[in-house]
Structures are given as structure tokens and as C-alpha cells.
């Protein structure tokens, strides 16, 4: 089964966004709990995955005709 490049780009975007969200929580996140996104590693990772998926979904790869 062949995956389309669009699915591969979306998956890569979700993975990169997840890692970025987790790193954001680790190094920047607030400990008081008053920050809705960065107070929990789960929410921060999910938010990063959504943003990464949206960011990478705008790219298009066109095939060149020979």
C-alpha cells in the first residue's frame, strides 16, 4: 500500500508539533496551573500536534510530468 505524500507530510507535521509542544511545556510552561495550554503536558502536546498538522497541511507537492 502506497501512502500519498500529503498523508506523509501531515504525519510528519503532527509528530514535529507534538515534540515541539512537549518541549514548550518542559522549558516554558507555567507551574501554577493558571495557563490553560502550558500547564499540562498532555494539553501542550495535543495543541502542538494540532498546530503542526495544520502547518504542514498547507504544503503541496506536485508531480513533474516528463
Summing up helix and strand content along with how strands pair, one would put the structural category as mainly alpha
- Content of β-strand: under 5%
Q: Distance between termini?
A: 24 Å
How many beta-strand runs?
Answer: 0
Uncertain segments are none
Radius of gyration: 15 Å
The biggest beta sheet is recorded as:
none
- Tell me roughly what share of residues is in helical segments: 55-70%
Global outline: rod-shaped
Give the SSE order as H and E letters.
HH
State the helix count.
2
Please indicate the count of domains. Answer: 1
Provide the residue-averaged pLDDT.
86
Keywords: Membrane, Transmembrane, Transmembrane helix
Transmembrane segments: 7-27, 39-59
Explain what this protein looks like in three dimensions.
It is a single chain. The protein has 66 residues and is an all-alpha fold. The protein is built from 2 helices and no strands. The longest helix is centred in the first third of the chain and has 23 residues, at 5-27.
Amino acid at each position: 500500500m502506497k501512502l500519498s505524500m500529503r498523508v506523509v507530510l501531515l504525519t510528519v507535521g503532527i509528530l514535529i508539533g507534538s515534540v515541539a509542544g512537549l518541549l514548550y511545556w518542559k522549558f516554558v510552561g507555567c507551574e501554577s496551573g493558571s495557563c490553560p495550554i502550558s500547564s499540562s503536558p498532555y494539553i501542550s502536546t495535543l495543541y502542538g500536534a494540532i498546530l503542526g498538522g495544520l502547518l504542514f497541511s498547507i504544503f503541496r507537492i506536485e508531480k513533474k510530468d516528463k
